Records
---
Amino acid sequence: MFIIKSIETFGSYLMLMRRVFARPERWAVSLRQTLREIFQLGIDSIPIVLIISFFIGAVICIQMKLNIENAWMPKFVAGYATREILLLEFSSSIMCLILAGKVGSNITSEIGAMRVTQQIDALEIMGVNSANFLILPKVAALIFMIPILVIFSICAGIAGAYAIGFFTGIMSADDLTCGLQYDFQQWYIWCSIVKAIFFAYIITSVASFYGYTVEGGSIEVGKASTDSVVSCSVLILFADIVLTQLLMQ
């Protein structure tokens, strides 16, 4: 029964995505909607990304310094480990898990509220492809903003590591800089960006699907928001395994 329901849900998702990626009827309106979503979904998320990344970078630096400190190890190892964690996992995967809760629930609630108040039905009656009109700008906006948020997250995490080293004195700036530069692989930054783009699509498309297909009233909208966050988180973790295996070979 669960397998059959999952197949039916996946089929409904694919049918909705087919409508979403149809050619927009009015490009100017679609572009204007995309710009609005860039501000609402992307730019409004910058503060939380910077704050969380700053403190996580500081915590990672402390943990690495305290737990791997050894007379036989170079002093820059903590900085090296901090950089690798930020680049390979935190600034892409973990940050997108956080955004799935903030952005995903927002998308589901917005579209779900439009569904239960019959605004989507009104768009369909007027001959508008509501799926394309409502969902495509959100997908395009977050895919555009996610690489920027990843760069901001990396920079904020490194700034947090420098700040904790300066205020606590557990690590000198020279040692941290040496660790950040040691054996640097530029491809790791591109890996983070590529993974984050896939995660951005998962967040927007899955959250939009739950909101677009909700039935009932406000209680069902709240339940759909919770379900969308859970589904996005699981899919992001699964995609992270697959993409890491493909990109890091």
---
Amino acid sequence: MILLLITKETDYALRILRVLADGERHTMKPLCQAEEIPQQFAYKIIKKLAKAKIVQSTRGVDGGCRLTVDLENVSLYDLLEIMEEDCKISACMQAGYECSWDAKHPTRCTVHCQLASIQRKLDQELRKHSLRSILFEVS
């Protein structure tokens, strides 16, 4: 089994942002063709990015979408928060999670403690990388 932290939807979002990084307005069909993204997914992704105020989307004959932020100020962590319902490494990392093991034992769960430590480090690392650096810097 393969666990994907960055889903196909987030990968497509990165591709969309790569095109929009030029600051110009782009229509969906050429954008999708350039980045090889199925159009039905692109609309869903643009809707999420627009709700997060990352892009502006306009419908109609003169419609299209354009970037509204500097990608230097948006981290990979931010994008994952926008695109993914749950980008935690374990369900027990989610706010409000009720652990049946925890309810039956007087001691703290060492598994949860270790995973929480890993989650903090992962979140910190994801916050270090701007989308601009991911999309345009060669290492």
